[in-house]
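Two folds, back to back.
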Amino acid sequence: RLLGSIAEIGQQTPIVVVRDVAHFVVIDGYKRLRALARLGQDTVAAVEWALAEEEALLLERILRAGDADSPIEQGWFLRELVARFGLGLEVLARRLDRSKSWVSRRIALVSDLPATVQEHVRAGAIGGHAAMKYLVPLARQRRSLHPPRGRDRAGASDEPADGRAVRGVLRRQRGDARASRPGSDAPLARPRGGAE
C-alpha cells in the first residue's frame, strides 16, 4: 500500500535521521526508505534531529507510544538499547515512564525464551503477556536444570521449545477445557532414569 501511494503521489512524510560522525542513521522511516529504493528513487526527504542516536530512538518511541508495538517488539528494542548504549533497566524505565519490572519482563521475552517460542509470540499464536507470565519462568527453570548449549546471534537460546508447555499456554489462552484438567500442565523436564 505504501509503495503504491509513493509511486502515485510521491513521498509525503520525511524520514527522521540523526548524524553519526560521517553518516546519517535512520531513526524513523525504514519502510518509506525501502519503498523509495524499490521505485528507483535516489533521493529521500529527511528531517535531521540534533540528538544523539540513543536519545532520538527513545524520543521516537515515546512519540509513537499510541502505535502499540507488541511486547516482543518492545523487548527487541529495549535489549538493543541495553546492548548498544549500555542503558540500565532503571534508566530505561525512567526514560520511558514505565516500571523497571515492565522493562525487565519484555527483555526476558527475547533473552530467555527459545527462538522457536519467540516466533510463536511474534506471530501472535502465543500472547506476549501469557509468554511473560508462564513461559519465561518455565524457560528460566529449564535453563537452571539444563544449562543451554549456546545462544544464537540474537541472544535467543538454541534449545528446542518444549511443545507441551507451549500447547498448555495456547490451550489456556483459548479457554480449552482440557487445560484445566489435572495433569494437563506437564513439567518442562522429564525425570531421568526412572519410570515416568
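---
second:
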Amino acid sequence: SECPDASGDDAVCQPGVCNGLGACMTRPSSPCGVPTCVGDTSRRVAGSCGGDGRCVPGPVGSCGGFACREGQCLRRCSLDADCGPGVRCLGGACEVPRELGASCVTDRACASGHCADGVCCDRACNGTCEACSAARRGEGTDGVCGVVRRGLDPDNECPAGGDGFCQPGVCDGAGACQINTGTICATPRCQDAQTA
C-alpha cells in the first residue's frame, strides 16, 4: 500500500487510501479524536484534522467549577465531589464559599461555616442580644458578630415586665437584656387601708 494507515486519532485524518488525484487522501478540518478531561475541572474538546494528515487536539476550557468526568463537564452536582477543589455543591450548583458579610441562607454557603442573620458571619452569633448584620445590631459591619445596640431588640429576645419599667424589653448594649434596677416600677396604691 502506497498510503499508510494512520492509527489512533490520526486514522480519521489519514484513512490510508488514494484521493484519486495522484496522492494519499487527507481530510483537513474533519473532526477527530474525542473530548477528554484535563485535570479535575477542565475539558479538551475534540480535535480537527490538519493539512498534514494529523489530528490537531482541540482547545482546553474550564468546566466552571464543576468536575469533568469521562470527557464531559458536569452540569449539576449532588455532592462536593461533583465540584472542583475548594468549591462546594449548593442546591445543585458548584459555588465558591462566600466571604464574611456576603448574603447566605445556609452555613455551607460560607467559608467561615457560619450563616447568621442572612450574612456569612465570623462565628455562630447565637447569643442573647447578638447579631451579625449591621442593620440588626444598629451599627458596625456585616459579617462580624457583635452585641446589639442599647435600646434595640431585633429578635424579640428580651421580655418586657414590671409594667415596662424594670424590664423594658430591649437589649442593654452589653449582650444582655436591659434590667432597670432601683427604678420605681409601680405607682403607690392603697391596700387593706394602708399605703403600699
